[in-house]
Amino acid sequence: MSSTAIDEVVKMMEDLPVDLQDRLVEHMREYVDDLLEEKRWDESFNKTENQLIIAAKRAKQKIAEGKAVELNYNLL
């Protein structure tokens, strides 16, 4: 599947020396990996957002009722 954006990138790269093309591909690979990771995070967050909101409300309620226990980091 080709798009105008892909065609534009290919045209830009064609004028570069091979060593710069290789460097650009590596940068693009890293950038695409970052974008995909961000997309996975967003999807994961969207799936669990309601549970996180409920947990936060419960925590606030326990704090307000004086039932919250301070976290002991040494037990982690």
Q: What is the chain-wise order of helices and strands?
A: HH
Shape: elongated
Structural class: mainly alpha
Q: What is the distance, rounded to the nearest whole angstrom, between the alpha carbons of the first and last residues?
A: 48 Å
The residue-averaged pLDDT reads: 93
**Biggest sheet details:** none
Number of domains: 1
Q: Count the helices. How many? A: 2
Low-confidence stretches: none
Radius of gyration: 24 Å
Instruction: Please give the number of β-strands.
Output: 0
Indicate the percent of residues in helices.
over 70%
In short:
With 76 residues, the protein is an all-alpha fold. It has helices at residues 4-14, 18-64. The longest helix has 47 residues, at 18-64.
Structural commentary:
The radius of gyration is 24 Å and the shape is elongated. The longest helix has 47 residues, at 18-64. It contains two helices and no strands. The model has no long low-confidence stretch (mean pLDDT 93). It has one domain (4-75). The chain has 76 residues and is mainly α.
